[in-house]
Amino acid sequence: MSGSVKSYAAVDLGASSGRVMVGRVGPDSLELTEAHRFVNRPVRLPEGLRWDILSLYGGVLDGLRAAGQVDSVGIDSWAVDYGLLDGDGRLLGNPVHYRDSRTEGVAEKVWATVPAPELYAATGLQYAPFNTLYQLVAEQRTGARRLLLVPDLLTYWLTGEQGTELTNASTTQLIDPRTRGWSFDIAQRLGIDLELFAPLRQPGDAAGLLRPEVLEETGLAGPVPVTAVGSHDTASAVAAVPASGERFAYICTGTWSLAGLELDAPVLTEESRAANFTNELGLDGTVRYLRNIMGLWLLQECVRAWGDPDLGELLREASEAPALRSVVDASDPVFLPPGRMPERIAEACRASGQPVPVSPGEITRCILDSLALAHRRAVEEAQRLADRPVDVVHVVGGGTRNALLCQLTADACGLPVVAGPTEAAALGNVLVQARAHGLVGDLAGGRELLTRTQPLTRYEPRGDPARWREAQARLVRI
Description:
- This protein is of the alpha+beta class.
- Helices cover 38% and strands 21% of the residues.
- The strands form seven sheets. Strands 17-18-16-15-19-20-21 form a seven-stranded mixed beta sheet, sandwiched between helices.
- α9 packs across α16, α12 crosses α14 (360-386) and α14 (360-386) crosses α15 (403-413).
- The longest helix is centred in the last third of the chain and has 27 residues, at 360-386.
- The model has no long low-confidence stretch (mean pLDDT 96).
């Protein structure tokens, strides 16, 4: 059976770090090891906040060198951001970071041309100020001949071939989730040239071969194919949710929490728009119906402000702090920019008439209670809006390491939480590559393999659910 085991390099880029993982896949085996991890540190330039894309590409090359010989490479990353190329395929500047301020006030200009309800009915995408559509309306640069989303840009540098992978394209607010193609009417009315985008690719499509220069730099022996995966990291993470059947919710945790359901068709009602749920595209014709929640960004920023204290000690202090004493709206845009996070959380509690958390342990408990409450609300509303009841919540991603958050999420939702896998995006990336090479069957087959091979932890709900309803009512009054 050893001859049927293949190795795949999964390049998984998050908003704060990147990693190259190697997945070894056989008919009854799935092992993931880390080849290389590197920091993703944005840079604030005089013109604004930018991604250090060359450093990221260098990290990818270092990771492929460390990975050794593989049968394929796949890349996933965060959504919405892009690089612009000139007619010769040269990058015209560092990609703008989605937390940059250039889109402030742009949504109102867009809605003056295409009202928000009409935009949602056409694209199914939640309002977020950094959606690619708003970035393009704000874009001042001239001379661009091609736009490549971040994973597609790195794929182009590796292979010399250009494409636009569908799951990530669906986060631009320029895709019709019913046809799974471009929304030409919306783009035309807003003056956005869809010819900037390379042809659409599906997860599993061939995306080219590593260029000779890349082979030389990484020490790999060619040919090494690059495979289009669910290049939005959430699409890859949801593909790696170890669920069976349909009655499950998922929460992809990390810098963001993405909480919702996997559906066969989008939910485009006005009620869904008002609740700010998004319809992004997933594997095999699925729709990721979910809400963006600020996620562990809140804690990451606090930890940075506190000088990187020991996280285990911080969580121990949080576990001993009073439960649900103070909560904030974890989806409030006030928490989107970096800096002064402990002060902003304290200010939000003070403004709402709640006790103000002071110590790092108290602030951490406030954050985790607030995230669990946001998870509860998203899971409940998704079930109602999509008319899809669930029996279990699957938590995947970096937040699975935070046992307190997982338990609080089970308590808040009143449902069992199954936590794991932690490296869900990388595993989903690997599974799509393995499918493209005939080692794994359909989406259900990949999930069944995950369930058999990956460590999972189950949390049962505890405590009085009325306390969470009271806390939610407190936020509604705010």
